[in-house]
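Researcher: Quick one. two chains, 283 residues in total.
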Amino acid sequence: MSSASVITVTRRDLQRRKRQIFRELGVTPDSFEKKIHSPGPLTNREWSAMEELAEIRFLLGDDTP
Amino acid sequence: MEFANELQVLIRQTLGTGRSVRCVRHRGRTTVRPGSTQPVAVSLTYRGKLAARLKFNYEIELDSSGKYPAVTKSEIHLLSASTNRPVLRYEYLRRPNRVPAAHWHVHGENTEFGRIMGGIAPVNISLDDLHLPVGGSRFRPSLEDFIEFLILDLKFDHTRDWRSAIRRGRENWRKTQVAVAVRDSPRQAVQALRELGYAVEPLPHALRDDNLRRLREL
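Model:
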């Protein structure tokens, strides 16, 4: 069975990826924030973007209160 | 890395998925979750048809000594396959703020709960706002427990030999948790070992004090 791999990223990679996610979704950060906090359904792409943005926040240390 | 491997083996040997588990690392911070460069939830099927999704992720940072990685947050969610919204959430926070360290959220409507909360007018709270406590930091459930629940209670498709993988993983998890629980209360551990017939004497530098914060926290 193959082993899990490690992806090492830089601060620049994370910031670039964050901008790319919003560009691909075609939304602003504010409107996406509203969408994910609304009760409606999320597409697979939106769900994945929401998760990836949370991951980026954590990795950049932007999640601390 | 070893942790990610264990999780990958666990989901493949229980749920029969081919999904990979990845570590994504930046400086002292690491996340572990299914997917590739992007997070992807694990498909849960019933008789071969997509029925729900399993999301899990672990956030890992170096502990206060700066030497050892520690899970600071974990989330295990059962998601609706049609809306990607959670049905159940089991979460852990190493440094909780006014909530139990390990807790469940249940999403849904409950008439009786509505009646209770209807009588407490100033409090506007829904079922999924509740944090149902489960064992604190040391005695919290593992991903193995969650997967076993998915298989036994919700009847999702699984491998033939899923129980062996669950038992192996749970044994490892609980041994780790026993070791850290011993550090929380060394005197209690010494007493228990003496009752089992062991001769245990602390060395001069031995840690003797209980970690009261860990022993008392929710």
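The longest helix of chain B spans residues 162-184.
Researcher: Thanks, that's what I needed.
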